[in-house]
Amino acid sequence: MNLPHPLAFLPLSLRRPVFWSALVLTALCFALFGLVLDPPLRSPLSSGIVSFELARTPQAAQAMLNAWDARARLFVAFSLGFDFLFMPLYATALSAALLLTAERLTGLSGGIANLLGWGAYLATLFDALENIALFSILTGTLGSNPAIAFGCATIKFGLLLLACGYALFARFFLQNRTGN
Questions:
Q1: Per the structure, how many domains does the chain have?
Q2: What gap in Å lies between CA 90 and CA 117, rounded to an integer?
Q3: pTM
Q4: pLDDT tens-digit series, residues 47-89
Q5: Which residues of 119-131 are buried (b: 16+ CB within 10 A; e: fewer)?
Q6: Residue 33, in any domain of the structure
Q7: Are 122 and 155 contacting, i.e. CB atoms less than 8 angstroms apart?
Q8: Is position 180 within any domain?
Q9: Domain of 117, in residue numbers
């Protein structure tokens, strides 16, 4: 049995508009993170929120926290909260890209695109767990939370890179139904 794509319910006429809308909103969120939310977090120990996500050890996470003033910590908290809005946007943009790709493929190639469409949404679960661990660190509970955040971030980024890579590979290198 072939697993249907998570966005297969969308009428054909809405698939491209959903993709483009989600992609534009995702790009705007990236811009907000990069231009507004990350600069106050930059230090010799951190290049932004992703550094905090990948701190891995209590010592590295604590060193970042010590390097940030109260204002920077507010930016961290806002970034983590804002990420919950960002998650469905990036997942929908990537999943819709895979849906548009899967429409052009047959057999196993299309099935992989459908599966990775689910993977884009699964990445948001790991992103949410990562954010919960990071909120705990921010509020003073280090424990194993840096390792949890690192593990979740690694899985999240892995799923997203795999899905994005496959969407691009399938789009440009795999045979499609129309022969284009």
A1: 1
A2: 11
A3: 0.92
A4: 999 999 999 999 999 999 999 999 999 999 999 999 999 999 9
A5: bbbbbbebbebbb
A6: yes
A7: no
A8: no
A9: 13-173
